[in-house]
Amino acid sequence: MSEDVCVNEVDGQKMALVPAGRAVFGDGETRFEAELRPYYLGLACVTNDQFAAFLNNVRPSRGDMARWVLLGRQSALRPVGDALGVEEGKGEHPVVQVSWLGAKAYCAWARVRLPSELEWEKGARGVDGRAYPWGDEWDPARCRHNGSRGSDRTCSVWAHPDGVSPYGLHNASGNVLEWCEDWYDARAYRRYGRGDVSAPARGRHRVARGGCWMIDHPADFRCDFRFRMHPRVRYAILGFRCCRSAPKNA
Fold this sequence. Notes:
By secondary structure, the protein is α+β, with helices and mostly antiparallel strands. The protein is built from five helices and twelve strands. It is globular.
């Protein structure tokens, strides 16, 4: 395995090194450069298999379960006795209907964290400010969207290998929206462009990024497009990707 990829010992997820350095963020009037410290970002979103293993390990209370994830028709998680299993063929699909609170709980268990939206964006587009993980031109064949999903909605987190980001991230555009750590602030990118890249201290919604299977407008799949979601919502279009800090010399 490449030295730029590590495996998280708790859940086995593969994570790519995003080296320290400057990158281009935003677009148009909000386009700016900023420098980030090194970190690791999941090559793929957390899967149904991984999230089921988490729930079976921590055995959450009924209240926590309800806050973290919505089980039901659009979820691939299925009760099997007193545990949770996964619908056949959906083990490597991204877990969905997970709230921001549920994503945070998973990260605490796996000893990782959610990425900031700047960490997510650099991981998705690299340093050159490209519009999509694969380049500047919209190519619907490189991602999961409403026009390509068929009846299955999501696809494997390893699908569309020709649409990976410069760091090897799969499905950073399409398949599911991805929770970020940050509060959503409509003016945040203007402030970042002035040199203050500290995350918003408060808000009502959390940031989600990346486009999803339910939409097909090219602009919504751009690496700089920002969605906002209440942290308690559990939608069938929402999943998450994990992050962890790297040594300064990485």
